[in-house]
Design brief:
Layout lengths: L20 H12 L16 E21 L2 E32 L2 E31 L4 E12 L10 E3 L13 E4 L7 E15 L2 E23 L11 H12 L6 H12 L8 H11 L2 H11 L13 E24 L5 E12 L22 E10 L2 E10 L2 E4 L5 E3 L2 E13 L2 E8 L6 E4 L6 E5 L4 E8 L2
Parallel strand pairs: 6-9
Antiparallel strand pairs: 1-2, 2-3, 3-4, 4-7, 5-6, 7-8, 8-9, 9-10, 10-11, 11-12, 12-15, 13-14, 14-17, 15-16, 16-19, 17-18
Helix pairs in contact: 2-3
Length: about 475
């Protein structure tokens, strides 16, 4: 039987992959000469090594109060947490030292022969209050209200200090802007202001129904921005005095300015020993080569133009993560549990509804990068239980609705998914328990789509997993 042969992939063919990641990397090392598996050099330092250090000081004060309000038993817990964080991010990377202009619109960034540390420091602090109140409305009904603030720190990948130089697009003099990518050690944590309220009705010693509502106002979500910044003291040979002189020389002889002619004339002016007649040699070379494409290749093969201190700094259009988004997440949950008298049999169920105010627009152009809340979906669980005479058993059905896994220019959606799990345990004696568990016992798969169910991104064969274990208490 073929893998996924029973899986509906729409109008698309089925392609699956299975490979050894380490062997693939080794092959790529040999094929392309890249050190994807980095090795320590003589100094004990690795290229592409990133370290994020966080020194966190925190203090927490809590006060509890119990009493009655209007004859109803009431408990109050109030607290405040202070956190101060000092962050130092260091990336060991090959540092670019210059840009080589090879031909009309061809640029190469040349790295130094050694690696260096790029380091940035940042500090921030938070005061995070919390308040929890529960009220026994009657002997069977309890109400709860909670308020608090929490933080979630940025990923270590976003906190790196590394900077990568990308493509140069076109000569700066002709309107092109080189690009770069960077992380951002100055990111601050997401700050969530949380409100929760619930009511619980206990209609038996082990049976209840509850309803809850939650609202989270989250600031400092991480998005992307593009800003023009100089990087590594890299300079632009297309906008300095030599290039300006080439522009003037081309204007004198009536040649239309473009990247090709700019490079050729700059190369001629940059090598006067090879072209003593300057502008006249431009036409001599053109006539000798016979056509522009051969001429372009010939000059590009013989001459490279490097920037000098007279050339201006490049301003790279740098893409980096920033704290620039706010969002609201809210929803409700209903849950119930009931055991049937003394039979040992019981049922437990819950449904959670989750909504957010920032959604992905599937109709937007693929070139538009979007911010959207990821991972939000409704969930439901139902459990059949048995607890009696040393036996404990659970058969659970778990369901999760479709959710957005990642945003950006192209979304990834995880399809609605469900699975069955079970656990059975028996107390052989007072200190010995034997357990058998099964996860995803019906072999459900997980599918990830693009903007449509007809654009599958991948399918994961999760398979069923079983465990058998024993626990003994000494």
């Amino acid at each position: 039987m073929g893998l996924f042969e029973d899986y509906d992939m729409g109008d698309h063919g089925i392609t699956s992959f299975r490979g050894n990641a380490e062997e693939i990397v080794k092959w790529a090392n040999e094929k392309y000469g890249h050190a994807f598996l980095t090795e320590f050099d003589d100094t004990g330092v690795r290229d592409n090594d990133h370290t994020v250090e966080e020194d966190v000081f925190s203090a927490y004060i809590q006060y509890s109060l119990s009493g009655e309000i209007g004859g109803m038993e009431t408990n109050v817990v109030a607290g405040v947490r202070y956190e101060s964080t000092d962050l130092k991010s260091t990336s060991i990377q090959a540092v670019p030292v210059t840009t080589r202009w090879q031909d009309n619109n061809d640029f190469v960034t040349e790295n130094g022969s050694t690696t260096n540390g790029v380091m940035e420091e940042h500090s921030y602090n938070h005061v995070l209050p919390s308040l929890d109140i529960d009220v026994s409305v009657t002997d069977d009904i309890k109400a709860r209200v909670s308020f608090g603030q929490t933080i979630a720190r940025a990923s270590y990948e976003d906190l790196r200090a590394s900077i990568g130089i990308g493509g140069y697009n076109a000569a700066t003099l002709m309107g092109g802007i080189p690009n770069a990518t960077a992380s951002n050690p100055s990111l601050v944590p997401l700050l969530s202001t949380n409100f929760d309220a619930s009511v619980e009705y206990y209609f038996d010693d082990t049976s209840y129904v509850s309803f809850g509502y939650f609202d989270k106002r989250v600031s400092n979500f991480i998005g992307k921005e593009q800003v023009r910044l100089p990087q590594f003291d890299l300079r632009d040979p297309t906008a300095g005095p030599r290039a300006q002189a080439a522009v003037a020389a081309l204007a004198d002889i009536g040649v239309t300015l473009d990247e090709t002619h700019l490079f050729v004339m700059t190369a001629i002016l940059d090598n006067p020993q090879d072209f003593p007649n300057g502008q006249a040699d431009y036409f001599t070379e053109m006539n000798r080569i016979g056509n522009e494409s051969d001429f372009e290749f010939d000059i590009g093969a013989r001459y490279d133009i490097y920037p000098n201190e007279d050339d201006p700094l490049y301003e790279f259009l740098t893409s980096r993560p920033v704290n620039n988004k706010d969002a609201n997440i809210y929803g409700a949950e209903i849950a119930a549990q009931h055991f049937f008298a003394d039979t040992g049999f019981g049922l437990q169920a819950n449904y959670t509804l989750v909504r957010g105010d920032v959604k992905y627009d599937n109709t937007a152009a693929p070139t538009v990068s979007q911010f959207a809340l990821t991972g939000l979906s409704d969930t439901a669980n139902m459990v059949a239980m048995y607890e009696k005479d040393g036996w404990q058993a659970r058969l659970a059905y778990n369901w999760r609705d479709e959710f957005l896994q990642s945003a950006g220019t192209e979304p990834r959606y995880v399809e609605a998914y469900s699975q069955w799990d079970f656990t059975v345990s028996y107390d052989v004696m007072e200190d010995l328990t034997v357990t058998l568990a099964g996860i995803n016992i019906t072999n459900e798969d997980q599918r990830v789509n693009g903007r449509s169910v007809n654009t599958p991104y991948n399918v994961t064969d999760l398979g069923a997993r079983y465990t058998l274990g024993a626990r003994y208490n000494f």
